[in-house]
Design brief:
Length: about 350
């Protein structure tokens, strides 16, 4: 009965699209002021940071640039951008100094979502859902075909091995944005979400709590590409290949990007919506493609859909041993006995219409 499991990735269905974000959980605010050695280490990577920033800043559009600089410094320090580290960098003034050293024209462009150097190849890894074997298989493929950036478009959380997946992606300097599952896990809305929340460290929770709802990059051949989870206005809006043009246009209202890349429904598609191109990159961890595998997208100069194969039986065994509540239901229709893709799309459309009808 696939509808039960399908509703799990959407649940709870929120009737009204909302742009409200939950406030980040307890961010560490006390820098280790006496850590002179740490400041010295920051200083040692400052030049590298400044060199990297002009092309990196497009990622910073939703956050104060100096905060991003601080994060970048912390990341370059190899300390995984911990809250303590970010706060310490901010307190030291290095973030603002590095920011001030950047070319002001680059920064202005970056803040408008442009950036001077379009990226050539970007991998989009959405809806990983803590499926570590699937993510490892995709990353192995990327090792053979390097990309300029990895975008993780939400719903990395709510799954068996969230922290391990997070660590692998952070090690590759992925750009993260939030999905409904990040919000719901941090909010511990039910047993399975609370189980997932309980397995995150305070630092991980704080890090995830700071993810933006959207990321914009300029990519060769595609132009301005806006990444989000459900739609630019809601992390749980349902947009499918079959969504009527009018409803899809409404979901993208106000967007000026050339391409919008989403996730959430775990099905790859590429369709026009007005003058824009709407792409769903698919799901790495829990696809609904009618076949098992890890589904993702390579962007630039066109959109290329990928399906990476891995040992599903082995992975399922490993994912089950995590003890995540409801894991059997999740794996069933997605990976073990994949439901027909068309039926799943039809189900999502039914849910979308239902949500639409219920809206005031
Ligand atoms: Mn989702």
């Amino acid at each position: 009965m696939f509808r039960m499991s399908l509703s799990m990735i959407l649940s709870p269905l929120i009737v009204k699209p909302t742009t409200e974000k939950s406030s980040p959980p307890g961010v560490v605010t006390t820098p280790p002021a006496s850590d002179g050695a740490m400041r010295a280490r920051c200083a040692s990577v400052r030049n590298e940071c400044v060199a990297v920033l002009p092309s990196r800043l497009p990622l910073a559009a939703t956050e104060a640039p100096w905060v991003l600089v601080a994060k970048r410094l912390a990341f370059l320090e190899g300390l995984s951008c911990s809250d303590v580290m970010v706060d310490a960098v901010l307190a030291s003034g290095l973030g603002t100094t590095a920011f001030a050293s950047c070319d002001t024209r680059s920064i202005a462009q970056a803040e408008r979502g442009g950036g001077e150097c379009p990226m050539r190849r970007v991998a989009v890894l959405n809806d990983v859902h803590g499926n570590l074997p699937a993510l490892e298989a995709v990353l192995a493929e990327l090792d053979r075909e390097p990309v300029d950036a990895i975008v993780c478009g939400g719903d990395l959380l709510w799954g068996p091995y969230q922290s391990e997946c997070l660590a692998l992606l952070r090690a590759r300097d992925a750009r993260f944005l939030t999905g409904n599952c990040e919000r719901q896990v941090l909010g511990e809305i039910d047993e399975s979400h609370a189980w997932c929340a309980g397995r995150l460290s305070d630092t991980e929770r704080a890090f995830v709590g700071r993810w933006p709802a959207t990321v914009e990059l300029k990519i060769d051949g595609l132009g301005r590409v806006l990444f989000c989870h459900g739609s630019p206005r809601s992390d749980e809006e349902i947009l499918t290949m079959l969504t009527p043009e009018a409803a899809a246009s409404e979901g993208l209202a106000g967007v000026t990007a050339d391409v919008v890349v989403i996730g959430h429904t775990h099905q790859q598609f590429d369709r026009p919506v007005g003058a824009m191109r709407l792409v769903n990159a698919g799901s790495v961890g829990l696809p609904y493609e009618g076949q098992a595998g890890a589904f993702w997208a390579l962007l630039g100069p066109d959109v290329e859909f990928r399906a990476t194969h891995y040992d599903i039986a082995d992975a399922a065994e490993s994912l089950r041993t995590s003890g995540m509540p409801g894991i059997d239901d999740l794996l069933g229709d997605s990976l073990l006995e994949p439901a027909p893709r068309d039926e799943v799309t039809a189900y999502f459309e039914q849910q979308r219409a239902h949500v639409e009808t219920d809206s005031p």
